[in-house]
Predict the structure.
Amino acid sequence: MPTFVNPRLYQEVTRGKVVLLACPEREHPALYGKIASMIRSSRPRSITVVSIDGSPHCLQLHAAVNEAEYILGEAVERRHYVVIDGERLVEVSPNAVRVARYLHLVDKLIRGDPGILEELGRHSLEYRRALELARRQGSTRD
């Protein structure tokens, strides 16, 4: 078991499953095709993707599984989870992954619910730093 994963969450998610670990930051960019090929070759009953919430690299794993279904033209039973702050496992829909790829839609959602940025501030060090820098510079930029 990787030492950087919460052991309780790891056990919860992997029980009775074959586990493949991947890091898009370290993998070849052909990840989409590799996952589609693995699905075509091994015909798994289901796929569970678990990643760290907020990681731009980990998001690619979720998108790659959705894209594999598209490439294959076959339904793939799958579940998408994110680990929030290293402590909590939350299931997200394949559509959440799809929307995350389209920034203009994400922006539309933020404009419709600007309070979501408060929640972002509870999880994202990068966002808190951006707010701090904007305050120091007297900027009101987003």
The chain has two domains: 7-101, 111-142. The beta strands are 47-52, 78-84, 88-92. The chain has a mean pLDDT of 87.
